[in-house]
Amino acid sequence: MNLPKVIEELVKTQNEFDSSAYANCFAEDAQVFDEGKTHIGKAEIEKWIDKSNRDYKATMEPVAYDEKEYILSAKIAGTFPGSPLVLKFHFTMADGKIQSLKVTE
Length: 105
Fold this sequence. Notes:
Blueprint: H1 5-15, H2 19-23, E1 26-34, E2 37-40, H3 42-56, E3 59-66, E4 71-77, E5 85-94, E6 97-104
């Protein structure tokens, strides 16, 4: 699977539970849409993923990637109900950073 470098880094930092490095994959004004909430800016994204890491200990295993649409399908396993499950990560990129991320089922 040929993932863009920044998405490879995102998966790596998620699996290491490194919230700061995870947030650094995003542009300063990036947006994340997950579980019905929007998180704007790197600082807010870092707080969101840090809480998620503490609450769910979720790891990512890429299973498919749509290079045209920038959609990563990944098996997510952790301490949450229904684990593991496959989620879709819809990316918008700019200048080698993630501009937006929307997580869907």
